[in-house]
Amino acid sequence: MSVVPADVLPGSALAVEEPAACAVELGPRARLWPSLAAVYRAQLSRARVARIPLLFVATFQSVGIMILMRGVVDDGAEAQAVVAGSSVLVVAFVALNLLAQYFGQLRASGGLDHYATLPVPPAAVVLGAAGAYASFTVPGTVVTALFGCVLFGLPMAHLWVLMAVIPLAGAALAGLGAALGLLAPRPELATLLGQLGMSAALLLGVLPADRMPEAVRFTRDLLPSTYGVEAFARTFGPHPDWAFVLGDLAVCGVVGVVSLAVATWAYRRAAVR
Question: Which tens digits make up the pLDDT trace of 147-199?
């Protein structure tokens, strides 16, 4: 007579459960948009106090450049280029320069490990930080544009186009800044690359394109902020060509998507190291 253990009988209360039934059910994976909103709010509240003085510096810098250029450039197309370039320079200072420094320091200090442990998609981290930094540029850009219009006697009827220029140019520059900060091997190099990018936006965006050599114009066309400057500058004319304005804004949007995708890839690459 064989003895059968009681825990293997079908009707026994001691029957072993299936492995699938014993497995602990995991919670739902974090979705992109709620995670993005959470990271955006966290970055906005954290950087609010620290970044406001830097935003003042960026605005004061752009206003000072316009005052210096007032005695150099003529009215008309050159004045339009100076005002548009100085306004977008505020976006470049914060979204490109400061964001490159932030991600460079975050990578060097091990801060990426904190985000890697959270159930947050990598795209939400990059987009949330980029959106928070770009949000700080809105007051400075508007103040710079208003001051430039008064200084150079330009019309203010189409300043509403800044509602499209700031987020699109900000996305392109923020993605570039985040990618530079995440790909740089040292935070000092990330700071250097951010400064060089902002200097390129200053020299190639504020100075009138007609006074540049052909080779420099080609380099200017490779800079993402150039198309935001061109879109804004076109609106100062008596009869803006809105097809060209929309075309420049579309280029900004495409570059923004590409640069943010590269920054997301760079974040994944840096987080697993």
Answer: 999 999 999 999 999 999 999 999 999 999 999 999 998 999 999 999 999 88
SS3 letters for the chain?
A: CCCCCHHHCCCCCCCCCCHHHHCCCCCCCCCHHHHHHHHHHHHHHHHHHHHHHHHHHHHHHHHHHHHHHHCCCCCCHHHHHHHHHHHHHHHHHHHHHHHHHHHHHHHHCCHHHHHHHCCCCHHHHHHHHHHHHHHCHHHHHHHHHHHHHHHHCCCCCCHHHHHHHHHHHHHHHHHHHHHHHHHCCCHHHHHHHHHHHHHHHHHHHHCCHHHCCHHHHHHHHHCCHHHHHHHHHHCCCCCCCHHHHHHHHHHHHHHHHHHHHHHHHHHHHHHCC
Taking the C-alpha atoms of residue 100 and residue 144, their distance in angstroms, rounded to an integer, is 23
Q: Crossing angle for the helix pair 77-91 and 137-152, nearest 10 degrees?
A: 160
pLDDT digits (tens, 9 = 90+) for 32-45: 788 888 888 888 77
- pTM over 0.90? The answer is no
Q: Which of 261, 175, 256, 203 is nearest to 85 (CA)?
A: 203
Note whether 104 and 184 are within 8 A (CB).
yes
The residue type found at 129 is: A
Residues 94, 229: Cα–Cα separation, whole Å: 16
Residue 267 CA to residue 10 CA, distance in Å, equals 52
Count the neighbouring beta carbons within 10 Å of the beta carbon of residue 216: 14
**For the segment 220-235, what is each residue's pLDDT rounded down to a tens digit?**
888 888 999 999 999 9
